Amino acid sequence: MFDMEQRMNTVALQIKPQDIFLFNARALKTPGIINMTVGEPNFATPEHIRQHTSTQLLQQTMHYTIPEGKPALTAAIANFLHDKYDLNYDPSSQIIATLGVTESVYTTLAAILNPGDEVIVPTPSFTIYGPDIILNQAKPVFVDTSKTNFRLDPAMLRATLQEHPRAKALILNYPNNPTGITYDKAQLQALAEVLQEYAIFVISDEIYSELSYAHKHVSFATLLPEQTILLNGLSKSHAMTGWRVGYICGPQKVIAHILHVHELITTSIPEVTQDAAIEALTNGQDDTHTMSVQYQKRRDILYNGLQQLGFKVAKPQGAFYIFAKIPAQLTQDDVKLAEDLIAKEKLALLPGSFFGIGGAGYLRISYAASLENIKITLTKLQHYLVENGVETKIEGKS
Fold first, then answer.
1. Rg for the chain (alpha carbons), in Å?
2. For 229-266, what is each residue's pLDDT tens digit?
3. Class level of CATH domain 60-283
4. CA–CA distance, 370 with 31 (Å, rounded to integer)
């Protein structure tokens, strides 16, 4: 009998299941679990989007569209990006609609990488970047940002580029998952001044752009348009994770080749979700505002509570995650601690080490959850700390 597994792509054989998915699945098997691991809005997709899509679904027969997406969709994306971020993309040649930003990342890397290329990834980072790079026979170069307030600084970037002449791209994700940290215009400009000296792509994953709290989001594509491949989508801005609508934007000649890869991966994204996206981008430009206000309220309650419990936390400026340093009195093995919290408190928080170098000793907590669950989380953490002999600063409690 043949061992057909060994006939598979040797690189694919090295790819392991995503730790965050395995951990979440395990947590959900615990009855009564308070699950704070999910990076998904707990809001419903706005009603006007659902109503519009329902009408379209009943009135139209859904078919293939052109691979880059219906002209009405690419036009809506172009208008949205212009209105929100002062970007100017030609909807007929510089935009591709994708199956979420997850597909955008893979498609972009597949289109630009050659075997042996390197891709710079500031860490902690979202978990798909490294495996996607490896699957495309390139090498991730992880840069630990934990000592620079979870931001890539210009000196660190320049040193990395000098040490890695085969670097083909930098992946920049802000507001960041898992830390919630973002960049202001001056910080981005400083990075752009370094990058413009090198023939390197900037893959700017700005999926959380509409959830920027400290200041108006600045797209990297406004600073270095000829080198930037912009990734964005509707999952976070319009609570549309299940609709799977992302998009890639960039220089015309680059986008033309990325499109060829995209159309091999998927002929086109579903027409019904394209219709939903058109409605969201055209008539729902302010949909995020209500959600953003609630996220900031939740963030502040969680942030203040964690500080009182003795966690060191960089205050999130965007997205909906807090990256909390485990108090020194507890084990710094974040995986062991997270497993203990499930077992003893029925509380699921993600280990920071799942997000790469610089994440060990941290826990990621999503505040895309109800206010009730956030308060329960703080109560459970306090109980766990007390049970382990750790004093807290919460008034009236030790």
1. 21
2. 999 999 999 999 999 999 999 999 999 999 999 999 99
3. alpha beta
4. 18
Whether 123 has a pLDDT exceeding 60, the answer reads yes
Residue pLDDT, tens place only, 162-175: 999 999 999 999 99
3-state secondary structure of 266: coil
Strand, helix or coil for residue 15 = coil
Q: Is 319 in contact with 4 (CB distance < 8 Å)?
A: no
- Contact (CB, 8 A) for 222 and 86: yes
Contact status, residue 197 vs residue 229, Cβ threshold 8 Å: no
Contact in structure between 27 and 261 (CB atoms under 8 Å): no
Q: Is the pLDDT of residue 373 over 70?
A: yes
**Domain range annotation of the chain:** 7-44+287-387, 60-283
Q: Is 391 in contact with 329 (CB distance < 8 Å)?
A: no
User: What's the rounded Cα separation, in Å, for the pair 137 and 370?
Assistant: 41
Q: Would you identify the CATH topology of the domain 7-44+287-387?
A: Aspartate Aminotransferase, domain 1 (3.90.1150)
